[in-house]
UniProtKB/TrEMBL annotation:
Residues 213-331 form the Phosphatidic acid phosphatase type 2/haloperoxidase domain. The keyword Membrane does not apply. Keywords: Signal. This is Phosphatase PAP2 family protein. InterPro entries: Acid_Pase_classA_bac, Autotrns_rpt, PAP2/HPO, PAP2/HPO_sf, Pectin_lyase_fold/virulence. Pfam families: PAP2, PATR. The keyword Signal applies. CDD domains: PAP2_acid_phosphatase. It comes from Rhizobium oryzicola.
Length: 637
């Protein structure tokens, strides 16, 4: 039933509540929150060659170009030089070797790959190296048969076959549409003696023969263009862990896969990790409904390289950094501009058609429909707990710890489909406000690739250090229609919700610039979702799903706005409430059964003025009870 604020009915309310609530003679509305009056920005770093401009120099096979000066892939990982001086960097000085045919002697095969030998590199900060190899020893010595099997599969089968696991309920549908095949489905009994190679097609069948997901398969190939780790391996000459320590256990079934040529078998960076990350990032671009699950799967690929005994933490960190830069480079290239649009559209259309009868808005729900027994990546908290320690692998900071956040040129493309309702500059600011601190080994590159935390970035802003306006067009479907930001948002900026879509906030938020809702819905899923400032509902509606929403300033509801909250929830306002009109919609919690005579508090405040035009609780008659400090409703039947 609907309560309408007519004079006759209001008289009944006064009698029923025994005394008239004292309202101000004239309702005075507080001004809308002013915020900071500026937006935040994230300019690309200066004084450094951007990888997205130079990624084409990362060419394998040309020994003369595997140098810091000539190769963007080698240069990207130059943070490793804080820990390691490779043989190639000092052989000239030691041997006074001449150049030949304009190719420096430093790139000759002068390394035997045996740590501590006369032709090995030189360690810096030995205790960090000790921690690195200690992690490999610890992990490989704690292996179980199931973990051995997992590490074996990630080693021997196509990397794309492995990362498709991250799609969970959508994985089999994807494999069907991509026409993906593999011949490595288990760990053969004789694998301890026989090296098995995957004879499948890895990524699937491309667009020339596959109308279902062929464009998507093409984009995987494009995302890895110029993505080789060979030049960096050639330059840095860092040994595999089993050569560095006899205490590192290699999965027995992978012994036949070990190279017997150390000089051409460098461990840094990990090629398997880099490829897994490249394919996972492209998949996250194509299927952003599983974005965080895909980057978690990429992190698991890296961990499995360590569990296999084939790589160390240094190698895995380098592989991740290189992959982020390579994929961003390719997604920014004009050459692939049309392909990425076509591939994304094809992937979304095919998956929604095959699983949700073409309803794009249901695809996110179906992508998360399985529990942990069927989808190992079903738990967001577990994914986050696994992912974040592997951003640094627990290494101590060895450089400056207070360097301001930096976002590489072009990195915003990595969030293009995950946060489609934000501008490119806003996506850069999201990356800026969610990246990790500076100073960690290997990943503190000058551009900032290693500090990017894509798991957190997929959950929206980490801080409002400027005012943020979010405009979501629900008619476009997907994340344009509804999204959730789970980060704990700090800062002094203001959030303005525009457009017809729905944005939910679920973090422990402390931003102080206030909230303005102009259209659509802003959903409070935590008690501190709206921060510490004023909340001003100019249009649209605020939906309170939290048990008890705390508003740190004023609450204002204009005539064209609405508020929705659960009958067993409530809103606590530190200062004043001003209600010009609008609609209050009440809902019941699961199992809640109010009875006639119950009086339930909804809003409490320092002062309360004004009235809603209507109050609705489907199936019930209500009497609103307004007071100087709040609003309750009495159930009449």
């Amino acid at each position: 039933m609907i309560f309408r604020s007519s004079t006759a009915l209001y008289t009944v309310i006064l009698v029923a509540s025994l005394q008239a609530p004292a309202f101000a003679d004239t309702l005075v509305l507080p001004p809308a929150p002013a915020g900071l009056g500026k937006v935040d920005t994230a300019p690309a770093p200066t004084g450094v060659v951007a990888y997205v401009d130079a990624g084409g120099t990362n060419q394998r096979g040309d020994a003369c170009l595997a140098t810091l000066e000539a190769n963007a892939g080698v240069r990207l990982l130059s943070g490793f030089l804080d820990l390691w001086t490779p043989r190639s960097a000092f052989v000239d000085a030691d041997q006074d070797a001449p150049a030949k045919d304009n190719c420096p002697a430093v790139v000759k095969s002068d390394w035997d790959g045996i740590p501590g030998s006369a032709t090995d590199g030189k360690k810096k900060l030995p205790e960090v190296h000790d921690a690195n190899i200690a992690y490999s020893v610890k992990v490989t010595r704690a292996q179980t048969p199931e973990l051995d099997r997992e590490a074996y599969l990630d080693d021997r089968r196509g990397k794309n076959v492995s990362i498709v696991d991250g799609l969970g309920p959508l994985a089999d549908v994807w494999r069907k549409g991509a026409r993906q095949t593999t011949t490595i489905t288990d760990m053969p009994a004789d694998a301890v003696k026989v090296k098995y190679d995957d004879k499948g097609n890895n990524r699937g069948v491309g667009s020339k023969e596959n109308p279902d997901l062929g464009k998507a398969v093409d984009l995987f190939d494009a995302g890895s263009d110029n993505g080789s780790t060979e030049p960096a391996k050639r330059y840095y000459k860092y040994a595999r862990p089993y050569r560095a320590s006899a205490d590192v256990r290699v999965v027995p079934q992978l012994e036949p896969a070990k190279s017997d040529k150390p000089a051409s078998d460098g461990g840094f960076p990990s090629g398997h990790t880099a490829e897994g990350w490249r394919d996972a990032l492209v998949m996250a671009y194509l299927v952003p409904q599983r974005y965080q699950e895909m980057v978690t799967r990429a992190a698991l690929m890296g961990e499995n390289r360590i569990r296999a005994g084939m790589h160390q933490t240094f190698d895995v960190l380098g592989g991740r950094v290189q992959a982020l830069a390579v994929v961003a480079y390719n997604l920014n290239r004009e050459k692939y501009a049309g392909l990425k649009v076509e591939a994304f559209g094809q992937a979304q259309s095919y998956l929604s058609k095959e699983t949700a009868n073409g309803d794009l808005n249901k695809l996110f729900v179906l992508a998360h429909a399985s529990d942990k027994t069927k989808d190992r990546f079903a738990d967001w908290k577990e994914n986050k707990a696994f992912f974040e320690p592997r951003m640094t692998y627990g290494h101590r900071q060895i450089g400056k710890t207070d360097v301001a956040p930096v976002v590489p040129k072009g990195a915003e493309v990595l969030l293009e489909t995950r946060l489609p309702y934000l501008s490119a500059e806003q996506r850069r600011v999201v990356l800026k406000t969610t990246e990790i601190a500076s100073g960690y080994p290997i990943i503190s590159d000058a551009e900032g690739w290693g500090r990017l935390n894509l798991f957190d970035a997929a959950d929206g802003y980490g801080a409002f250090d400027g005012d943020v306006a979010v405009s979501m067009d629900a008619s476009k479907g997907g994340f344009n229609a509804a999204d959730t930001w789970k980060n704990d948002i700090e800062g002094a900026g203001k959030l303005t919700k525009q457009g017809s879509g729905s944005l939910a906030l679920s973090g422990t938020n402390s931003f102080s610039g206030g909230v303005v809702v102009e259209n659509g819905a802003l959903v409070a899923q935590s008690d501190t979702a709206f921060g510490k400032g004023d909340v001003y509902l100019a249009g649209g509606k605020a939906v309170v799903e939290a048990k008890s929403l705390a508003i740190g300033g004023n609450l204002t509801v204009r005539k064209n706005a609405g508020l929705q909250l659960s009958l067993n929830g409530g809103v606590s306002v530190a200062k004043s409430v001003a209600i010009e009109g609008g609609k209050l919609v009440l809902t019941l919690a699961d199992g809640q059964k109010p009875k006639a005579g119950d009086e339930i508090k909804l809003i409490q405040a320092g002062t309360f003025n004004g009235k809603f035009d209507e109050i609705v609780l489907e199936g019930f008659k209500l009497t609103p009870v307004y007071g100087q400090n709040g609003l309750s409703v009495r159930i009449e039947g």
